[in-house]
Design brief:
Elements: H1 3-30, H2 32-48, H3 53-77, H4 81-85, H5 87-103, H6 107-119, H7 123-133, H8 141-153, H9 157-170, H10 178-189, H11 193-204, H12 210-222, H13 226-238, H14 245-250, H15 252-264
């Protein structure tokens, strides 16, 4: 065997390995695994609604684009799944309390059950339990506040008004000014625009909550103050620039609402 043939053999082996790896990648790209990877990323995109350019990366980039999307968008979103997993023990506790209130219908049991219903989005059940938890001796603002939140979620603004007024009169900063922001939103929906305007102006000087910004923008639009409404909706969207990634992902529903609001706002 000559020295030249011995020198060429390692080179040929490297080429063979390279061709094998490239072939494996090609097979993966066009196998059902690659299609499944793309399908998962498209499903995640529809659920989470990140920036639109990611859809083009997934469709044009194939499995490689899907993999990049997973690393940049899906993996960080895994932290948000903890809230979903909390639903399992929460539902078990709800079932337990539903039985407990039959034997011991105490205010504490009803209030805890109401809080769990509220977290589950079962607003009508939550309000019924708060009604039973609240008595003439209840001095904590929390059950009144949460009952008001549930009423707002059901668009029952007349019922929410006295509860939120009670809370804000006790503590204007309750829940990081969210109570006051919701009360302003309630005033806007019960034909009290003067109170709504005054309270919104007060709260937005202190709070930067996306919910409050969005509600204020919709109130201004309803009053025909479209330029100001556009400004506040844009302020909501501008917050994205300085937000950490996890918070930006959590606030996406408000960003989508603000974008839809701006698209439908007359010029």
């Amino acid at each position: 065997m000559t020295c030249g043939s011995m020198a060429r053999r390692p080179d040929l082996s490297r080429r063979a390995i390279l061709r094998l790896n490239m072939g494996s990648l090609f097979l993966f790209a066009f196998s059902w695994w690659g299609i499944l990877l793309q399908g998962f990323t498209i499903f995640h995109f529809i659920r989470r609604r990140p920036d639109t350019f990611w859809l083009w990366i997934i469709l044009i980039g194939g499995w490689l684009g899907a993999l990049v999307y997973i690393m940049v968008e899906a993996v960080p979103d895994a932290g948000l799944l903890r809230q979903s997993f909390k639903g399992f023990p929460r539902r078990a506790r709800i079932h337990e309390l539903e039985g407990a209130v039959l034997d011991n219908p105490s205010a504490g049991n009803y209030e805890e059950l109401a809080d769990l219903y509220l977290d589950e989005g079962k607003y009508a059940h939550a309000r019924q339990c708060y009604d039973k938890a609240i008595s003439s001796r209840t001095d904590s603002p929390d059950p009144f506040y949460r009952r008001g939140v549930a009423a707002v979620a059901m668009a029952d603004f007349d019922a929410a008004q006295p509860d939120l007024e009670r809370v804000v009169s006790q503590d204007a900063q309750y829940d990081f000014h969210r109570a006051a922001g919701l009360l302003a939103h309630v005033y806007a929906n019960v034909s009290q625009p003067e109170k709504a305007a005054a309270l919104f102006e007060q709260v937005t000087k202190i709070s930067t909550a996306s919910e409050t910004y969005y509600n204020y923008a919709t109130f201004l639009a309803a009053q025909g103050r479209n330029a100001e409404a556009r400004e506040w909706a844009q302020r909501l969207l501008d917050k994205r620039r300085n937000m950490p990634g996890y918070l930006r992902r959590r606030e996406r529903p408000w960003f989508r609402k603000a974008n839809a609001f701006l698209r439908g706002l007359p010029a």
